[in-house]
Amino acid sequence: MPENHQPLPLKLPSAPALELRGHQFTSAQPAVMAIINRTRDSFWAGNRHAALDDALAALHLAVEQGADIVDVGGVRAGQEGEQVDAAEEISRVVPFLEAARTAYPDLVLSLDTWRSEVAQAAAGVGLDLINDTWAGHDPDLVHVAAATGAGIVCSHSGGLPPRTDPVGMRYADEQGDDELAVVRDVLRTLSRGAQAAQAAGVPMERILIDPTLDFGKTTRHSLVTLRHTGDVVALGYPVLQAISRKDFIGESLDLAADDRLEDRWLRRLSLRGWAQPFSGPTMCGQPGGPSTWWPPFAETARPFDTLAASSLPSLCSSRRKPYWPR
Crossing angle for the helix pair 141-148 and 181-200, nearest 10 degrees? Predict the structure, then answer.
């Protein structure tokens, strides 16, 4: 390299701040979301907390390890497993949310549901975020968020109804059926969802967009979408990245769910050219937004902080406390 050559600064999009329950999360101070499943059939056995006491123990551990947001779900995402109606889902998530709010008045609480009646039933506990992972399947859900003051996660599922596995998914539009067709569909869907949320009355600072890896996507689709996280950020909303133990990681690297953690898979994806050099606050290794979906904490927050420190040296030192006991 010539002695007078200076590297050019990296120009990357920056997501706006996310504001929930008086907390502000930014690209310099991102949030990490802990997931607690009130199910007997979650795809990863380590996050099955059908008993309320077990779920609350997981909550206390997540808070101890630094959770910024705790998200609870009462229904398995995939089509395998038991059928759960709205009444059963409510019986699983509302007692947990009530106990969580009593124990942690300032904690940001999120509910993973696609049903407006479930979100409405949980609104009285001080729900901060509705995590709609099925892309507005219930059009009333966004209006519940607006009426109750909660934030909303706008997602992309490729048009599939809830609990449908992405078998044989293909993407095509007026530009063709090339590899980027899935990215264009993600961007259109997230943009429409976020605009609909604003039109319903949800403020921009309480709208998260999630490219929703694995949902409505083959492994190849998820990997291509992951590489274009910067385009998602450029839509101008806070971004949620859901990575932990996802099937696309397991299928790419031939890893069982128990092994899809930490630097093992990130390093191998990097070597294969899928995870880019870290240049923002999102764990996936792309420029990203202020929230990352990432359970469990002790095993996964370490590479998060390591990658953040590689480009944002002040990030780790600005943390309120470490993610894992020292």
Answer: 40
